[in-house]
């Protein structure tokens, strides 16, 4: 609005005997203000609001104001959201009798104006006097979960009531049609958005946003635990990529003392093992005999100690025979130090913070399996040429806190990352740092201060892989290697043994296998770096790789954008020349026909948009588990597009760079542009609508 028009408005307000009545008469006689955007009616209303603040004597009171308030209430249901606050302020609607306001909102609700009733309730803070289930149910049926979140945002008691209601609906024995039946004729009704899967996601979002104890929602939590159990069985009995001890750790921590989950575990055991195998695992997982089927209980009774010893010995021999197929640490076991005290850690600092030092850095955390909360780092690994230090972060943070020295750990880590004289090696370091910040908020600016950082994720896709014959030799023996394990195989000859990757890293004491895995993950970075710098041409890399990598990256942190596990790397690896001042070389352009993706079920709009542009898209159904995306990606060679918590689960199931996290708050067009730019997909006119819609 021009300054001249604003001045004319103010002069008009001053000439009116009753500006409030004048505005109301204008709104009642016109309709332009009912649309979205900044109409003339909107501009006049907001300008009057400002003018009244500058002229405090203008607002009325008494019977005349009450009559105006009653008329304004009749207009509010037709108001766009941006007009509600100005009108409530101008006509002082918060001073109206509360019962009158509640009656008006109830009238809106009975007319089917559920969104308007909720928005007005929020603006006038009427929620404590309303039935949260009654107000929110039609909003959820219309896929207005964001409005539901806003409705309970300031009221912890309402948050708990809503979560308890949603949890009842998520009970497998609850008939969800009992909820939907009264609203069959509802406008903008979206039944596909009202199912247990969608409601469970909302529960987890609310639990995290409002920091509510998950124990309030036993049905949702148990169903999530059941999905975790099924995933663990898939990893152990189908993929065969978890050790027995690792698998059993997760099974026990997932099931706990829940009789319902114990019964589910028994059914899964019978599906994947015979009665004797199920009995052995029932014994291992401490399942109560009374919940076991008769055949399994009999086998458990007959399972003698000698039989168990023989089976364990057989398993140990099998595990030992497989170790020779994987990368082995070249340093003795006594050179791996597990640090739980600050006295030990100070000695580690003295060795690590030496000018000219090259340090392999890695981190481990307990898998979330889709549960609430961001992963918190449980172990920080620092590898030097002759030894590896494993820092027990939870224990060290607890000690520092009890001593009133919270800054101890962040100070050390910031010194390490910001020291240009120390070369830090990692693989997806920015993703690790995100988890580190979730563990210790004082480290939030560490990434901006990083110097002399080499992220080997950047060169991974440029390294020439093994010959097809070599790949064929291993076909059928185990799952194909991916990520860091594949890079280790390409450069050092043997892959990493990743069966401990999904360990419970918070459990103490760590098992010996966990300690060796954690040390290997960090130490292998040193060997890869040394081999690539010594002979880059042998791996298909440019001859100036050494000059560009050794200690020169991140001298201008803003010019360098770390790739991480949350932001998938480009197919050709970005940052291969991080030490140069010019932008890093982008991946080679590909056409939409060459780009295949699978979209998680919260990104269906993005999937349809990409398909319009000619991209090969598979869409997950609303009922599909997020992990279905990983199965499709592995089987069909697709990139996973997902968002939020599922990313933490999915990224570990596919190769690095094959899972991309999309900003869910953006519209489909902006999301699509982000994806196309990241993977350098070039869309031509002929690609548009080239695929069946």
TrEMBL record:
Record-level Gene Ontology MF annotations: 3'-5' exonuclease activity; nucleic acid binding
Region annotated Disordered, chain positions: 548-588
Pfam families in the cross-refs: DNA_pol_A_exo1 (PF01612), Mut7-C (PF01927)
Record key words, sorted: Exonuclease, Hydrolase, Nuclease
Domain called 3'-5' exonuclease: residue spans: 336-537
Superkingdom per UniProt: Eukaryota
GO terms of biological process kind: nucleobase-containing compound metabolic process
Compositional bias annotation for Basic residues: 553-563
Name of the protein described by the UniProt record: MUT7 Exonuclease
